[in-house]
Amino acid sequence: GGNVKLDAGEAKGKLQKGGSVEISAGTGSHMNSGKGGAVRISGGHAGGILKGAGWNDGGDIQLVSGSANKGISGSVLVQSGFSEGASSGAIVIATSDAGEKGVTGSLSLGTGISSAGSSGDIKISSGTAYTDPNPLWTKKATGSGGSIHLSVGTGNHGNGGNIKMLSGSTTATTSIRTPSKPVNATGGSIEIAGGASRES
Fold first, then answer.
1. DSSP single-letter state for residue 113
2. Of 19, 71, 73, 142, whose CA is between 20 and 30 Å from 105?
3. What are phi and psi of 112, to 5 degrees?
């Protein structure tokens, strides 16, 4: 089928940036029953029935920030919206169930290789719970911090999945600045600790 290409304008002047592309759904502005519109981006459907050479695979979705010659490349932000009077929306990242003859897709989370300095961190954290310490409508303020659940799949006929935690190894033996000087480098640690409690 035909292609659709949407490009913003190029900026060739000094200290100027290229044009932006913004796609937004409509506002639901009714006072009692308004709901904002949705934005859906989907890859193309593949209608072939024979698998082979990638020709009958569905289309991909690639979300890539801008590259840079000397500066830092652009960031990618995926964030649910703010609600002034209720909860913020959820973010779900998941692969779909497999068909009759297949396996479910993998989910990979990783940072890139670093050529000068430490590689990027991966941080997974739940939010802080804050409740008014002097609420007028309840006897006691309650608000628990969010939990982090790490679980693997069960096996119907085969084995259940494993959980594997490995700290980083090191191959350093000498200093980069002083090659003749040995370095006492150690592999990374793994630390698991429960949270502290405090009575009010």
1. P
2. 73
3. -80, 170
